[in-house]
Amino acid sequence: MSFAAGHAVGDLACSQIADGIMVEAEPDLQAALTRTAELVAIADRPIFEATFEHEGVLVRVDILVPERSAAGVAWHIYEVKSSGSAKSYHIGDLATQYWVIANCGVTIASASIRHIDTSFVLATPDDYNGIFSDAPLMDQISGIAATRDAMIEDIQEMLAGEEPVCTTGTHCSSPFACEFSSHCSSLEPAGPEWPIGELPNTGARLAEKWSAESVFEIADLPEDAGLNPLHTRIKHAVRTGEVYLDSDGVRQATAGWAFPRIWLDFETIGFAIPRWVGTSPYGQVPFQFSAHVEQADGELIHVEALDLSGRDPREPIASALAKLPREGAVIAWNAGFERRCLRMLAEAVPCHREALFSLAERTVDLLPVAKAHYYHRDQRGSFSIKAVLPTLLPDLAYGDLAIADGGDAQLAYVEATDPGCSGERRAELAAGLVAYCERDTLAMVEIYRELSGR
Q: Are 287 and 297 in contact (CB under 8 A)?
């Protein structure tokens, strides 16, 4: 999905530049290099995907814009990114582009990252003027570019020799996952069974600290390691295999959660290029919710809404939510997200404002209750609902579902709302989405019953 979003953002950026010409990579890259050289020599139009090569390094520049002056022609480099700002790792990429292009004899006037402006709000359908911002980085990249000759020499020397040995670590996934990680890790001895890095929040920092002392297992952390209460609890569970459960604490923490209890979960979509008036880039728009309404006697009624029309889903989702009970606790897992969804819908659909704000104000969070009063070592430091549920109710885990996580749900929404999706396939996706979202709220109910001893 992110790959497709990147292409869409690139296409939009090009569409906003008049008279630009695309350099095709077909039939081969040599043809692209030749075509780029021709267009740079003419220097009368912006160039998209301009292709340059120097010392075996090939780059394709998203947008190259000429500027004529008495001194001649200079070019502005714009590298388009779908992120909401220029990232640190973009600077190195831009510096490499600058180094290659400059060494091809092209004069560069400026170099910028053109990124999404997340404050943009779509006011008129299909009018995306103002959606991009430029981050000028010429001053930052010139010094980095000066190091590229030495870097390329080192890389070429490395490629000519034996495969290097490099210990895996956090660098293998930052800023993106390396596709060779599994290969590299297969050459290493087996790691710890319960690594210190699995401890929540500060685990990575603790793992780095204690690796200097040759301590890698949670269970081997010394008594004077200064662990916080949660880490101490996890360490005990890892060492003994005992499950920590304080049902009295759960009941006390939730005693004020009035009935009828509304167990609520949303599925949302956030497009880099907003589709609907009033929405912003990456703004999360609910297209589905599930609610299990629980009475004091334990009776459960499932309520759900799903909009796969492809039109703005906020009004139909808000309308269905407004029919939920006007009293009682609204319970979510990591409730800040549900509150934000409810408040956003209240502002977007003012006719249901009162009902939706009431739901938001009554929303409470089951996650910190579980975090304070339960731990099973098979959670491996995670308190996501998908980590907790299998340790309590393995038969309710998500393995039997066609759509099993939020990422799957977003992909299903994109496919189902595509005009080319068949009715049969859309119905199949809808059934999968309903089953998945329903499982999320039923899971909360059953987790709570297990934790509280009900």
A: no
